[in-house]
Design a protein that fits this description.
Elements: H1 2-5, H2 14-21, E1 26-32, E2 35-43, E3 48-54, H3 63-74, E4 80-84, H4 88-96, E5 99-105, E6 114-119
Parallel strand pairs: 3-4
Antiparallel strand pairs: 1-2, 2-3, 4-6, 5-6
C-alpha cells in the first residue's frame, strides 16, 4: 500500500515516512477475508483525517466508507482532511459523502497540490 500511495518517496523510505507521520495518530484498519483492505490515520485533537487508503483490489467494496464512518463517529466535531488535487477519485468519494472544499495549497507538491476538505454539514471554523 505504501508504494502506491507515497509515489514521491524513494522505495526504501515509504514505510518509514508513513510511520513517522502517523506517530501521534490513531491508525484504524479495515480487514476483509483476513487481510488489510485499507487504513485510516486520524489525528483526534484536530479531527483531522490524515490518511485514508484502500488497496486497489478492495476499492468500491465499502472499506473506505466504513473507515470514514468510523473516524466520523470517533471525532468530536467536523472532520477535515487534505487530498491531492489530481486524486479525482478520492475527491469524488469525499464529495459523495458530504464533504466540501474550503482551502487549497502547495501547488508545487506532488499531485498538483492539495485541497482541504471538511464535513459540509458541520463547517470547520479554523
Amino acid at each position: 500500500m505504501c508504494r502506491e500511495v507515497f509515489t514521491w518517496q524513494p522505495d526504501l523510505d515509504r514505510r518509514g515516512h508513513f510511520l513517522a507521520e502517523a506517530m501521534e495518530e490513531e491508525v484504524h484498519v479495515a480487514v476483509v477475508d483476513g487481510r488489510i483492505a485499507g487504513l485510516a490515520s486520524f489525528y483526534r485533537p484536530d479531527n483531522f483525517l490524515h490518511s485514508l487508503y484502500v488497496e486497489k483490489d478492495s476499492r468500491g467494496q465499502g472499506a473506505g466508507l466504513a473507515l470514514l464512518k468510523h473516524v466520523r463517529q470517533a471525532a468530536d466535531g467536523p472532520v477535515s482532511l487534505k487530498v491531492q488535487k489530481l486524486n479525482f477519485a478520492a475527491i469524488a468519494f469525499y464529495r459523495s459523502q458530504g464533504m466540501t472544499v474550503f482551502g487549497e495549497g502547495d501547488l508545487e507538491a506532488p499531485g498538483g497540490g492539495w485541497f482541504r476538505m471538511q464535513d459540509a454539514d458541520r463547517l470547520l471554523m479554523k
